[in-house]
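Researcher: Let's try something more involved. This one mixes different molecule types, so please make sure each is placed in the same coordinate frame as the others.
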Amino acid sequence: MAPADAGRRARSLLVAAVLGHVLLISAQVATPAGPSLLRTTIVAVVTEFQHASWHVAGAIHSVWDRYAALRGVREENARLARENTDLRVQLQQARANAAGADDMRALLGLRPHLPWRTTGAEVVASSLSPDFRAITIDKGFGDGISRDMPVINAAGVLGRVAQPAGNTATVQLIIDRSAAAAVRIDRTRTEGIALGNGDGTLRLEYLSATAEITEGDTVVTAGIDGVYPPGLGVGRVERIDRAGPAYRQVVIRPFADFSRLETVLVLVAPAPVWAPPLSAPEGKVAR
Amino acid sequence: MTALRMAALVLAAALLQGALSRSSGDALGDLVLVAVVAVGLLHGRVAGLLTGTAAGLVQDALGGGMLGLSGLGKCVAGYLAGVAGTQFIVTQWMSRGFLFLGASLLNSACFMGLSMLLGLRRYDHPILEVVTQAAVNAAVGLLLFYAIEFMPTAREQWNAVLERRRKRRYH
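Model: All components are placed in one shared frame. Result:
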């Protein structure tokens, strides 16, 4: 091929690639409601491959740990850690329920606080780009995981399921730059939106100008964003920078340690509530 | 064989990036971009373009973000690295460093620009972050090229050592 032809071909390829990307992005912008088939397919293929490679690397790495040095101890430890995580989350939910004044809710005719059904998952990979803060877990569509399900651990909120595939799912961490959650200050019940800073912290925005906040305040989920149930621990107010008489920047340090995620819990659905069977009214017997 | 080697380089970079971000929680550089630019420099603009597209899509898919956001910057960076590799003599460490720096800045500009344009992300102080990432990428890129160029020499030296040992055994 002549050099001029090769150059023309390369330029055409570049134009095609750029146009392809622009069309791809446009298609996703136009349909924000649900994941496209292309995206689901790509995620499924890539995560399966990543899952396999992670397992191979993990198997090699754990040969010594698992079978030579700590035979049996590791499994038991993992089981106990999972059990502990489960119990601590239950305790957290119980505390949140108690603090949430159930009787007031009942008086107002609001729906009572429902406990959630959870499924444990293991982290199989981390994000391959410094621009995204995400993890991949080993549960997907096949395990009942769907988009926007909250992901937590014993410390508190981790993020939400961004893209489920067959046997894996990508979880967008709450510290990602495009992540957000409705939160409230536990002490004063002031609500705001926590947004990821991308550097491991969150910032609290849309706060009332008169809201009382002090450093060290606990921040929990508010339960009004349609993703996270109320009362889950998010973090602690680390710093309040005053940038003017009416504006302040509140920085939250998350409770969860995002560099050491191994086991997580996905809140799959509210647990079914037992209800007494309806009795037929007197005098009317069903035939 | 060349395609396999390119794929292996990008795959190794991706796995290393994943392992780094898992252990440290926060990765400063983008090793996948470094691999894409290296492929562009070593194998030309088409290879850089295709590698950048594929690597960017994989990053987007696993990052949970919008598909194409990382891919666009990386395919253009890979292509331009290929153009620079064929049009200019990019053999000095300084010229290579500038190339990695430029490619990183271009990639960040594409990613951040699109993210802000679409209202997906907000960057309060992006300059420091972008410059740090570009500097880390440039340093890693220079190290990578040093390793690639050192490898044949190291292999020759190792073969010479083996040959000498063999001769000594025979005499």
